[in-house]
Design brief:
about 400 residues; alpha/beta; Rossmann fold; seven-stranded parallel β-sheet; five-stranded mixed β-sheet
């Protein structure tokens, strides 16, 4: 029997991508789930709730209103709180930093203070983020480039490379969103140390799957690939294809959250990820392959950079970790390859002709996180195993966009 079976669970952000998947998982194991949802002016129930967790108890509430939170706690009487609610889209945090800080930082403080004032004792699992690590140094050359761009790197790296990223890595947040998550995490840890609240922090690396918000890069890619396949588009438009991310399937992350609610040490911090890293470019190329193209080569539209068999698999060890990557991933990690806006884009040579991938400068972040690769050995000691490969994520997302109404959102 699961230790969460029969428990009363409160999920903030239940209508979000992860919240709805987590709710379904908990309901299926026999937990009683309550979800906090902001009231909508049109009174419409969010789509994710209708599709995945209609049998959860939905409570109206707003993290910026501590009185509403106190009422939600009275109704739910939770044994466990999963605090997922946040403004989580990094690019929006650059254009709306105050809104992001209000939702993510002040909202977290209100939740903790409501629990403290009411003398409740739930386990609180906080959705931190790998974005908190920010500027991770992988090589001396990359460190020199960062110094040239920013003038200073603080904290200074004690050793290079700083990957895989352990919980003890320095935090160098590179966006208002990342700053808000650092603040929220520190509040969680402080409320444990100062008031004895049972908090645990999950620093989740990128997690994806069917229904991921259309503004997130994996959905941007897979929606465009499906439009290409169905003749609704003739190109892919994207921002920085060099960025490397540790992508997990949402189902793995959901299991990790539940494991932390059960076995996570109060006051502690745990990474959640897959312990592999892939580039945005690989995500595009592998999505094309999963959709039926055979990728033969890539070539920049300007500059004459060409790579044959770019998706050829490489199982070699990097940074002390053995994981499957593509040929272009390996070249990017070895500083043998970099794509810049001056290239204008990439021609993907396939068995069905050339596919244009155009670079859109508007999609580049003002300050970029170059690489995320999780060291998950700490949560593995609690029994966690990442089960789903990258191809599963891509297939689920492509299948989601087969449905016309989902493509229309893109």
């Amino acid at each position: 029997m699961s230790t969460l079976e029969g428990k009363r669970i409160l999920i903030t952000g239940i209508s979000g991508f992860v919240g709805s998947h987590l709710s379904r998982y908990l309901l299926d194991m026999g937990a009683e789930v309550f979800g906090l949802v902001r009231r909508r002016a049109d009174g419409v129930v969010p789509k994710n709730i209708c599709e995945r967790c209609s049998d959860a108890h939905i409570l109206e509430g707003d993290l910026t209103d501590i009185s509403m939170l106190a009422h939600a706690l009275d109704v739910a009487e939770p044994d466990v709180i999963f605090h997922l609610a946040a403004q989580s889209f990094v690019p929006r945090s650059f254009t709306h930093p105050l809104d992001t800080l209000q939702s993510n930082t002040t909202g977290t403080a209100h939740l903790l203070e409501a629990v403290r004032i009411k003398d409740m004792d739930p386990k609180i699992v906080f959705a931190g983020s790998s974005e908190e690590y920010g500027l991770v140094i992988t090589s001396r050359a990359q460190y020199e480039r960062a110094l040239e761009r920013y003038g200073v790197v603080f904290p200074e790296p004690e050793s290079i490379p700083e990957v895989p990223i352990a919980e003890t890595n320095p935090l160098r947040p590179m966006s208002p969103y990342a700053v808000s998550k650092v603040h929220g995490e520190l509040l969680m840890r402080n409320y444990h140390n100062a008031y004895g609240l049972r908090t645990v922090v999950s620093r989740g690396f990128n997690h994806e799957g069917a229904g991921r918000g259309i503004m997130f890069v994996t959905s941007v890619i897979t929606s465009q690939v499906m439009k290409l396949k169905l003749g609704e588009a003739d190109r892919i438009t994207i921002g920085n294809v060099n960025a490397l991310r540790d992508w997990s399937h949402v189902s793995d992350i959901v299991r990790g959250y539940c494991l932390l609610a059960d076995k996570g040490k109060d006051g502690d911090v745990y990474n959640q990820g897959s312990m592999r890293t892939h580039s945005v470019l690989s995500y595009i190329l592998l999505s094309l392959e999963q959709a039926g193209w055979s990728v033969e080569a890539i070539e920049t539209m300007r500059g004459g950079v060409r790579v044959e068999q770019p998706t050829e698999r490489d199982d070699s060890e990097m940074f002390g970790v053995r994981f499957t990557k593509t040929k272009v991933d390996r070249m990017l990690l070895d500083d043998e390859l970099e794509f810049v806006p001056e290239h204008e884009g990439i021609w993907v040579h396939t068995d069905k002709g050339k596919v244009p991938v155009l670079f859109d400068s508007r999609r580049f972040r003002p300050a970029e996180v170059p690489i995320l690769l999780a060291d998950t050995r700490k949560i593995q000691r609690l029994g966690f195993v990442a089960e789903r490969p990258l191809e599963d994520i891509i297939r689920d997302q492509l299948n989601f966009f087969v449905k016309k109404e989902n493509r229309m959102l893109a």
